Amino acid sequence: MATLYIRSLPDSLYRRLARLAQEDRRSLSAEAVVLLEREMSKPRRSQTQVLAALDRFRLRPAGQRVPSSLELLKADRRR
Fold this sequence. Notes:
Distance between the termini: 62 Å
Order of helices and strands: HHHH
Strand content: under 5%
Structural class: mainly alpha
Number of strands: 0
Helix content: 55-70%
């Protein structure tokens, strides 16, 4: 079985992991493995898929183009 070392783990994240491990009566390593397995078992979506899903929730007339952030900034500066 492989070993994973994590450098520069923020103290706050370590404390959260330790608290979860204690609540679940697991070691830190066992808790980390459970969390990694849980997260990695979720289906991953590409950035294109995520943006397409978000696009379906935009409230605008069909076919209307969404202005870029640069266009919005320029319009705001003209006001």
